Amino acid sequence: MACCKKELSAEEVIALDKKYVWHHLTQHKVFENSDPMIIDHGKGMHVYDIKGKEYLDAVSGGVWTVNVGYGREEIVDAVAEQMKKLCYFANSFGSTPTAIFAEKLISKMPGMSRVYISNSGSEANEKAFKIVRQISILKHGGKKNKIIYRDRDYHGTTITTLSACGQEERREQYGPFTPGFVSFPAANCYRNPYGLDPSDPKLGELFANELEKVILAEGPDTVGGVIVEPITAGGGVLVPPKDYLTKVSAICKKYDVLLIIDEVVCGLGRTGKWFGYQHFDVQPDIVTMAKGVASGYAAISCTVTTEKVFQDFIAEPSDRESYFRDISTFGGCTSGPAAAIANLEIIERENLLENTAKVGEYFMGKLNELKDKYSVIGDVRGKGLFCGMELVKDRTTKEPVDESVCGAIVANCMKQGVIIGKTSRSFKKFNNTLCFSPALIATTKDIDQIVAALDKAFAEVCK
């Protein structure tokens, strides 16, 4: 029997949301005197709230995800056709879109070989950690089980990925954490502890040496993996020196440590190359990715390994302990790889890597013009359409502004119809970076609108 759907008014939807929905990262006390912002639809670079107001989205869905923009009918059609044919089957079996997608993805990643599919960035990194831990049993008698992570990096929201989180506020109240995770210092050129200019060529080696110190202190025979973001994302958009990851990789090889690159944010074109690590002449052992894999049109994440890592799990079928004993229920959804195939084809067909590099360079130039105009802007950094702007009270001391200043800038831009991001509730002191990640389809006209909104916001907030 067919049911008749009633079109709800904006007020009715808002009432339902306030009564039943538990929002991410939100103190719901604010909704006692205000309404949640509900996004209703989107097209291209723009989204529209349920009351009809239009916004230019400069953060690709709020969390750097919708890389190819909204309303891509070819992705929707690809998903619909696949779901009519086969919506799901566990990935212990195979499916056509999974096989096709895996081949297309590996073609963008020289030196990589195998793709393990799950459904979120946190889960992709959990798989990487489990691979390291199981290899420590299979090859090293269980000894090389520690995983080194970097301060200011973020790798997910589960208890174990939070165990590898370099952002203290995100970890608060969720311990005790999984043992065997150890931190090393961030590659923060702007705030380097050596008293060097941020462009000093010695920084790459100095930062990498901090990793070696930790490995030696822990004991190389106990360390199995190192995980880093190629460019730190939510920790402040920190771009490392060009030779940094090359030196990190060499240290990992020296001590027989697997190098895991977390591309959950940087992957699939965000920086102007397919993957962020490809700017830095490095060959990872494991690469994780999620957000931009299908541009948010379906849930999918990947843990990609070299053939060498994969072969560590190959044994006779009678060996009940050597295969990777892991499963992701929704890694079997065929909508993910179907959407990802269409997403890759759009990036290729529309030359979005080239567009990202070109428009990203224009964006960085415009942000630096704002830096020349407003002393509150201490640093501008980024790669491609992935940019950060750190705000300070004083450029000489680099004392960070209070988080409320960034919040006021974001709110001002929102009133103007431009959505930007910021580091938020991640650190005790350094929630002072504005973040920008417009879709890879952005034009210089879009950038001009973002910059004009920022200009007005700085003029009004930082008088």
UniProtKB/TrEMBL annotation:
Its cofactor is pyridoxal 5'-phosphate. Keywords: Aminotransferase, Pyridoxal phosphate, Transferase. It comes from the Bacteria. InterPro entries: Aminotrans_3, Aminotrans_3_PPA_site, PyrdxlP-dep_Trfase, PyrdxlP-dep_Trfase_major, PyrdxlP-dep_Trfase_small. SUPFAM superfamilies: PLP-dependent transferases. Gene3D superfamilies: Aspartate Aminotransferase, domain 1, Type I PLP-dependent aspartate aminotransferase-like (Major domain). Pfam families: Aminotran_3. GO terms for molecular function: transaminase activity. The keyword Transferase applies. Belongs to the class-III pyridoxal-phosphate-dependent aminotransferase family. This is Aminotransferase class III-fold pyridoxal phosphate-dependent enzyme. It comes from Taurinivorans muris. The lineage of its organism: Bacteria, Pseudomonadati, Thermodesulfobacteriota, Desulfovibrionia, Desulfovibrionales.
